[in-house]
Design goal:
By secondary structure, this protein is α+β, with helices and mostly antiparallel strands. It contains eleven helices and twelve strands. The strands form two sheets. Strands 1, 2, 3, 4, 5, 6, 7 and 12 form an eight-stranded mixed sheet that branches. Strand 3 and strand 4 form a beta hairpin.
């Protein structure tokens, strides 16, 4: 049996500029961090012919073309053994803004290649995952999820017009790292959503050179660059303030980005110990993330308001084969 885990992620600045509709014209930049919440994929070679798939549904088919799960179907078309049993589990549900789709794709690819006795470099793994989701399945998503899941750590990514990506681990001191792990806090909104539905509007407007959308993304990219400087100089207070500025810009991109309940929770947080925050991921639901100056007060206020905190630390290993 092959068992692979791939980390989920939080976006720390510049999110949205990793979509091809933006970076192919203007270049993108963001920073993201892998966290210790994982997607697990196991691959086995049973004696029975065909493909047995266990995820939120169960499939048992003879031919790849009959597989319902789009990512599994397209990945298997790359050419692997005919008799396979694939099982997937996750620490947190999909549709919550933590990049679980990209984590699943990288974990699946690594498991299948490991089962074929081949190792992939993180960059090769990330590009294969992007090719499946963006090019083959035509999902209106960006590249950050696949790259941060593959590499792990706290990293910046520059997205070039020619589709190449430059990754770099941030030069963060231990004190800053401990500060982030202590005071970056995640709270579940209770809403799940499809990232594709929200990002489709951004993609269409970017391709149409919509001035308001492009100016918004230009500003978000600038915030990403400033966030990198803030973290590398240890100014976590300014980083929190940049998160707030990011959120104010992000809300303008789509009417579905937030809702009255999310806005109420955000206001409660800002009045009770948060420096700044934002929804993680495309928006519309998932997790609210805050940088706190008083985490005890913030935790109490949002817990009393009905939110559930999910505690985490950073993952520095990326997509990893646990058993082979």
């Amino acid at each position: 049996m092959i068992l692979v885990r791939s980390p989920m992620r939080i976006s720390l600045g510049g999110g949205g500029t990793d979509l091809p509709s933006y970076y192919r014209e203007h270049e993108g930049f963001l920073i993201a961090a892998a966290i210790n919440k994982y997607v697990f994929v196991s691959v086995m070679n049973p004696f029975t012919h065909g493909y047995t798939l266990k995820y939120s549904e169960y499939e048992n088919v003879k031919n790849i073309e009959d597989i319902k799960h789009p990512i599994i179907r397209e990945t298997l078309k790359l050419g692997f053994k005919k008799n396979l049993e694939i099982t997937t589990l996750a620490d947190l549900p999909s549709g919550t803004g933590l990049g679980s789709s990209g984590s699943f794709t990288t974990a699946l690819l690594q498991a299948l290649y490991a089962n074929s006795s081949k190792n992939l470099h993180p960059e090769e793994l990330a590009e294969l995952a992007c090719d499946i989701e963006i090019n083959k399945l035509k999902e209106p998503i960006g590249k950050q999820d696949q790259y941060i899941a593959s590499f792990g750590g706290i990293s910046s990514f520059s997205f070039n017009k020619n589709d190449s990506v430059v990754s770099q681990h941030l030069n963060i001191s231990d004190d800053t790292l401990f500060d982030l792990e202590d005071n970056l806090m995640l709270f579940f909104t209770g809403y799940s959503r499809s990232a594709g539905k929200i990002l489709k509007d951004q993609e269409i407007k970017s391709k149409q050179n919509n001035e308001e959308m492009l100016n918004n993304l230009h500003m978000v990219k600038t915030i990403g660059l400033e966030s990198k400087k803030a973290l590398e100089t240890g100014d976590t207070k300014f980083f929190g303030e940049l998160m707030h500025e990011h959120w104010e810009n992000k809300k303008k991109r789509s009417s579905g980005m937030s809702n009255p309940k999310i806005n109420d929770w955000y206001d409660i947080a800002m009045q009770n110990g948060a420096i700044g925050g934002k929804l993680v991921g495309a928006g519309g639901g998932g997790f609210l993330m805050f940088m706190a100056h008083d985490r005890v007060k913030l935790r109490k206020a949002l817990t009393n308001a009905g939110m559930q905190e999910v505690r985490f630390s950073f993952d520095f290993e990326g997509t990893k084969t646990l058993i082979r």
